[in-house]
């Protein structure tokens, strides 16, 4: 079977660093007004250059238009020209945010879509006034442009920052790993939809998306330091508390993780279960429930989460094999 290929996204910027440089130019955070304006002018010029290349995201294009209208709003500027520039920017922004969601047979009211995507309805109303009524006042337009720029910063530029941070491999830390599972525990207990959901690989609701983020963090820790991840899960009261395994709570999370991670986790738990069995005095009727780690191995068997080779390992184990044979 051939490996699955993905189509690369074509962007006008050469790399992520260039993209985030543009973001910092648009939102410089400088106390000097002249320096801040110069930074924004660089961002606008760069955006215009990107427009020539094509494939500029609507949010980037609109940020350029809105910020341009802001910095051209000076005491010496013609008020009508400023109002026209701001009106055009607001119309372009709102249309571009709403139109992609009009994909059905019937037209959905813009206010309804705005509420669904978190866009202030005030901007939709302002867009309607700009399009169909008398040109709004400069005061109204300034408020609208400022609101649109703030919305873009929060819902586009800052989101891209967060995605970039998530993609970086974190250094393994037991406390941070435990915090991920604590967040999952709260999320799972507070959302009944998660408990009823059998497939968490395609998140739709906010709790499901939060779950997907937590699962992704576990995978990143696995990539950077699997030994610390597994030691934390097994020995830091993540997979069991007071000698009781957290099966109902953790099984949905475990099933969503990559098979190679589960395979390595099995090997870690297998070695740990045998080590414990060698150092404890157990009854002749030794079972997989002799310790919580071994009990998790039983769960792996029951849920058919083992490869044939791993099943063979269990059945060949002197301490775990008897019960494994009964289960398999």
UniProtKB/TrEMBL annotation:
It holds the Pfam family Las1. One of its GO terms (molecular function) is endonuclease activity. InterPro entries: Las1 (IPR007174). One of its GO terms (cellular component) is preribosome, large subunit precursor. Signal peptide: none annotated. GO terms for biological process: maturation of 5.8S rRNA; maturation of LSU-rRNA. This is Las1-like-domain-containing protein.
């Amino acid at each position: 079977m051939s490996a699955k290929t993905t189509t690369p996204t074509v962007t006008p910027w050469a790399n992520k660093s260039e993209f985030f440089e543009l973001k910092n130019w648009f939102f410089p955070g400088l106390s000097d007004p002249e320096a801040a304006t110069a930074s924004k002018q660089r961002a606008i010029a760069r955006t215009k250059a990107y427009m020539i290349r094509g494939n500029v995201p609507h949010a980037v294009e609109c940020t350029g238009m809105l910020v341009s209208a802001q910095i051209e709003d000076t005491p010496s500027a013609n008020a009508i020209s400023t109002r026209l520039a701001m009106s055009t920017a607001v119309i372009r922004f709102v249309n571009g945010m709403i139109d992609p969601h009009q994909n059905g047979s019937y037209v959905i009211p813009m206010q309804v879509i705005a509420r669904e995507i978190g866009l202030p309805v005030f901007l939709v109303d302002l867009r309607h006034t700009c399009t169909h009524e008398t040109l709004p006042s400069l005061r109204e337009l300034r408020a609208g442009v400022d609101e649109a720029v703030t919305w873009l910063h929060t819902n586009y530029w800052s989101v891209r920052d967060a995605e970039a941070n998530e993609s970086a491999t974190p250094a393994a830390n037991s406390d941070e790993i435990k915090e991920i599972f604590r967040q999952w525990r709260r999320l799972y207990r507070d959302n009944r939809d998660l408990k009823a959901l059998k497939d968490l690989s395609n998140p739709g609701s906010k709790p499901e998306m939060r779950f997907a983020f937590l699962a992704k963090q576990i995978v990143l820790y696995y990539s950077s330091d699997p030994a610390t991840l597994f030691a934390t899960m097994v020995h830091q009261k993540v997979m069991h508390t007071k000698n009781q395994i957290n099966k109902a709570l953790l099984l949905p999370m475990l099933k969503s993780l990559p098979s190679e991670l589960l395979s390595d986790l099995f090997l870690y738990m297998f070695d740990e279960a045998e080590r414990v069995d060698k150092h404890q005095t157990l009854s002749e009727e030794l079972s997989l429930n002799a310790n919580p780690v071994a009990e998790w191995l039983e769960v792996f068997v029951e849920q058919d989460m083992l490869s044939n080779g791993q099943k063979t390992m269990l059945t060949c184990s002197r301490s775990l094999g008897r019960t494994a044979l009964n289960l398999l």
